[in-house]
Design brief:
The protein is α/β, with parallel strands linked by helices and 253 residues long. Helices cover 35% and strands 21% of the residues. α6 packs across α7. The N and C termini lie far apart (47 Å).
Length: 253
């Protein structure tokens, strides 16, 4: 009888973490990364697939970007997406980077604009994403603060339209968001554009306070990257793979 009890204890200890539905905080609609009305987008589909491999399901909770840290601190959710060291979080809860964003200046190739630094945007008609002056650094803010032809716009699909229709000279937005909205209009297919890479990449992680869950998430993420499933999902959404732009110490994680 004693042997049977000992064996049963070993079996219980060896069982994997119980499968459960995980509450995952996601930012509001941001195609192609987050398409909230369809509960899809690259980020949601990737994390859903990773959690499924771990035996869990994903329950998305859409909130304004700044509320994620508070929900995690209050232990009201299990995971927060699109986080990094710049947010109001303890770095120790962050997973390995799972996605890279990169804001770029986009112009039409036919205009032959030379834009090697932010100051080259002066005197041009420029539309940036909303809050760009707050997040793209002091140099960008100073260069465009007094430019009468500079504006910011919440609807990024309209940014793309205005560039392609020659209503502006340049737009500033994430390169994959540009590619997404451009691909939705066949009339834009023949119009060549140029990416001017003036801004650094932004690597984003999942905030996962539970260390066991975080470790398993990291392991599954790296399997997805290594076996090609990550690239297949990027291809599905027609996104550029920017993981190679990570610093070596992060790329090796």
């Amino acid at each position: 009888m004693r042997l049977l009890i000992s064996f049963m204890c070993v079996v219980v200890i060896a069982l994997p973490t119980k499968a459960r539905e995980l509450d995952v905080v996601v930012g509001w609609n941001k195609p192609p990364y987050v398409i909230s009305q369809e509960h899809s987008g690259f980020e949601i589909d990737l994390v859903r697939a990773i959690l499924a491999e771990m035996g869990h399901t994903l329950s998305p909770i859409y909130v304004p970007f700044g509320r994620t840290a508070r929900l995690l601190e209050d232990k009201a959710v299990d995971i927060g997406l699109t986080q990094n060291a710049a947010h109001n979080l303890d770095d120790s809860v962050l997973s390995d980077p799972y996605i890279i964003y990169q804001n770029v200046v986009v112009t039409k190739a036919q205009n032959n604009f030379v834009i090697n630094e932010v100051s080259d945007l002066k005197s041009k008609r420029v539309i940036a994403f909303q809050t760009a002056q707050s997040v793209l650094g002091e140099e960008f803010k100073a260069a465009l603060a007094l430019e009468p032809m500079y504006m910011e716009m919440a609807r990024q699909d309209r940014q793309v339209d205005m560039l392609m229709l020659d209503h502006v000279d340049a737009i500033v937005l994430d390169r994959n968001i540009f590619n997404h909205f451009r691909s939705r209009n066949s009339a834009y297919a023949e119009k060549e554009t140029v990416f001017h890479e003036l801004f650094p990449i932004s690597a984003y992680c999942a905030a996962i306070p539970d260390p066991e869950l975080r470790e398993k998430f990291n392991a599954a993420l790296h399997r997805f990257i290594a076996d090609g499933r990550y690239q297949l999902l990027l291809d599905e959404y027609q996104l550029d793979n920017l993981l190679h732009k990570l610093p070596k110490e992060l790329a090796a994680l």
